[in-house]
Automatic annotation (TrEMBL):
Cellular compartment(s): Cell membrane
Topology with respect to the bilayer: Peripheral membrane protein
InterPro entries: AAA+_ATPase, ABC_Ni/Peptide_Import, ABC_transporter-like_ATP-bd, Oligopep_ABC_C, P-loop_NTPase
Recorded GO CC terms: plasma membrane
Protein name: Nickel import system ATP-binding protein NikD
Molecular functions per Gene Ontology: ABC-type nickel transporter activity; ATP binding; ATP hydrolysis activity
Matches recorded under PANTHER family: NICKEL ABC TRANSPORTER, ATP-BINDING PROTEIN, OLIGOPEPTIDE TRANSPORT ATP-BINDING PROTEIN APPD
Assembly and interaction partners: The complex is composed of two ATP-binding proteins (NikD and NikE), two transmembrane proteins (NikB and NikC) and a solute-binding protein (NikA).
Pfam families: ABC_tran, oligo_HPY
EC numbers on record: 7.2.2.11
Length: 305
């Protein structure tokens, strides 16, 4: 059953002399129990997508399209309803910058207990939540400024989990963690989905997505260019950009992608990857249809059908 239905979602920022097109025409659904990983290079619009869903965009943002979570349009329902009914119980966010998200004058234990209480949950769950994210009791007694980056990261993850949200958006939840803790966090998200929860994992770490995702959406320059089951994306990528991303991994060809992504203030009318793509031709001057694969020359043709 579908939990989140996104239809034609776009976000642009108006600047004095330019417009930043940060999210372009996203249409996708997330099933209950699904772990969808959104991957793509730095600056492609992943966090802006998360903030649009959470209703956290700055004033210069213009949002269009719809994002229906459990019957409620997150884009159109208004700040009051978002604050009262949505953030917390239905929608949780692990923010990308934990340090700025933590209230400095309370210990981790107190922050967690307050969040639990605010959502009618037992504040005594604070210690077990901390344990789930790999924080020990001593760390929980510290103030945010006393925490390392990795500890703060685990605390914001525990805080986002505290209300037990129907959909958890985790924006780079493994930043600052060493490998065992990265895996610990990823496995926690996987278990959450296995027991009926739903997670949208935003990451630039393809290995992380490969470890736990059911489905993967690959973003390039504000658009989703490929959105398919994870096993297919990692074994038979269909978009040349996905293929190039995988080939850049150290344990694959370790071949960096030539060139740079376009400025989001000057996106081309056609395929934005065409200038870097060895398969590009005249057809790429027009916008390809898709996903599942937004490409005029997909590498796996049946996937584009
Ligand atoms: N308030 C804003 N005004 C103008 N541009 C913005 C604003 N917020 C974000 N952007 C731009 O939107 C684009 C997408 O940013 P976003 O943070 O979503 O990237 P990202 O994919 O999350 O990257 P990273 O992996 O580095 O976190 C960037 O070019 C960024 O500069
Ligand atoms: Ni980001």
């Amino acid at each position: 059953m579908t939990l989140l239905n996104i239809d034609g979602l776009s976000v642009r920022f108006r600047l004095r002399d330019a417009t930043v097109q940060a999210v372009s025409d996203h249409t996708f659904a997330v099933r209950r129990g699904e772990l969808l990983a959104i991957v793509g290079e730095s600056g492609c619009g992943k966090s802006v997508l998360a903030h649009a869903l959470f209703g956290l965009l700055p004033r210069n943002a213009e949002v269009s399209g719809r994002a229906i979570l459990d019957g409620v349009d997150l884009i159109g329902c208004g700040e009051k309803r978002l604050a009262r009914e949505i953030r917390g119980r239905r929608l949780g966010l692990v923010p990308q910058s934990p340090a700025t998200a933590l209230t400095p004058v309370r210990t981790g234990r107190r922050l967690l207990a307050e969040t639990l209480r605010a959502h009618q949950r037992d504040p005594a769950l604070a210690d077990s939540l901390a344990e789930q994210v790999g924080l020990d009791a001593a760390a929980l007694g510290k103030y945010p400024f006393e925490l390392s980056g990795g500890m703060a990261q685990r605390l914001v993850t525990a805080l986002a989990l505290a209300p037990d949200p129907a959909l958890l958006i985790a924006d780079e939840p493994t930043t600052g963690l060493d490998r065992p803790l990265v895996d610990h966090t990823l496995d926690l998200l996987r278990r959450r989905c296995d027991s009926g929860g739903t997670v949208l994992l935003i990451t630039h770490d393809l290995a992380a997505a490969e470890r736990v995702a059911d489905t993967v959406a690959v973003m390039y320059a504000s658009r989703i260019v490929e959105h398919r089951p994870a096993a297919d994306v990692f074994t038979a990528p269909a978009h040349p950009y996905t293929c190039a991303l995988l080939n850049a991994l150290p344990d694959r060809a370790f071949q960096p992608i030539a060139g740079h992504p376009p400025m989001l203030t000057a996106l081309p009318a056609g395929c934005a990857f065409a200038p870097r793509c060895t398969h590009a031709d005249g057809a790429c001057a027009t916008l390809p249809a898709g996903p599942p694969v937004a490409c005029h020359h997909p590498l796996v043709t049946e996937a584009a059908a």
